[in-house]
Amino acid sequence: MARGPRYKVPRRRRREGKTNYYKRYRMIKSGQKIRAVIRKTNTQIIVQIIEFAPNGDKTLVGVTSKKLRRFGWKGSLKSTPAAYLTGLIAGLKAKKAGIEYAIPDIGLHPSVRGSRIYAAIKGLRDAGVEVPASEEVLPSEDRIQGKHIAEYAKKLAEENPEEFQRRFSQLLSRGLDPRELPDHFLKIRDIIIGYFQAGD
Q1: Is 192 within 8 Å of 199 (Cβ atoms)?
Q2: Domain annotation for the chain: domains and CATH numbers
């Protein structure tokens, strides 16, 4: 552990791995006050549109993947498809609030090409909110729809039915065959878009 008279104890949120204050300072210094904050936990995806204010940040939009259940989503709440749909909802809500642009804030998460973080950003962008990110880091449409999961499930069901039942027990218990995940994703995406269009 670092010691000595010049050692400075990091701020609590930095110690807890929640906030990178150097990145935050750079973002604020850039002059862009609105951030698209994406976080992932062991159980869900969180997407927020946050505006910097001297007296404390203001959350303009906040969506967790748990909200997907209201639209009939039967899949995992922490998967790539769920991350995209959560970003889509957040983006559609942001558009309704007049928000057109936000800089990405991925916190202490590593920047991994095609990750759930970038799936959420893709959802925000498809909703009409401009979030700067290279096209190369965004996941493919097949991955966003969960085709990689469906293909794996199909192969596993053919080779090891018992393992298939065990591995996908939660999805199956919610009435979703993982081999049909892409179709389910497209259905829920249409429901989400239709819901917000109807509210205009």
Answers
A1: no
A2: 18-142+185-198 (3.30.420.100)
